[in-house]
Design a protein that fits this description.
60% of the residues lie in helices and 0% in strands. By secondary structure, it is mainly alpha-helical. The chain is built from 3 helices and no strands. The longest helix has 22 residues, at 23-44. The chain has helices at residues 23-44, 56-75, 81-97. The protein has a domain at 23-45 and 55-97.
Length: 98
């Protein structure tokens, strides 16, 4: 049987329990929210453009809705980007101390 490198799901996860008011964790979550905002905005792009009720106001409302969706997803655990960024920031910080 050949040796196969582990996939991302098989690699051990770094336990990253954030301390309250941890600025690095907050920035990682903010980045994930921005990423999700861009991803969701592209998913909603063009939705309802041909609708007779579409307007500048509905476009503004939709962008605010997408922003709140992204923020809610990120705050409820997100898709794992914040965890990975936070773990990387911790590793960089530890390497800088050495």
């Amino acid at each position: 049987m050949d040796s196969v490198s582990p996939t991302a799901s098989q690699q051990p996860r770094i336990q990253t329990l954030p301390a309250p008011n941890n600025p690095m964790r907050e920035k990682a979550e903010e980045f994930e929210a921005v990423f999700l905002n861009v991803m969701l905005a592209s998913a909603f792009e063009g939705l309802g453009e041909d609708d007779e009720f579409s307007s500048q106001a509905s476009d503004t409302w939709r962008s605010m809705q997408v922003e709140q969706f992204a923020k809610a997803i990120s705050e409820s655990g997100g898709i794992g980007i914040a965890d990975q960024i936070y773990a990387e920031l911790l590793q960089i910080q530890e390497q800088a101390k050495q």
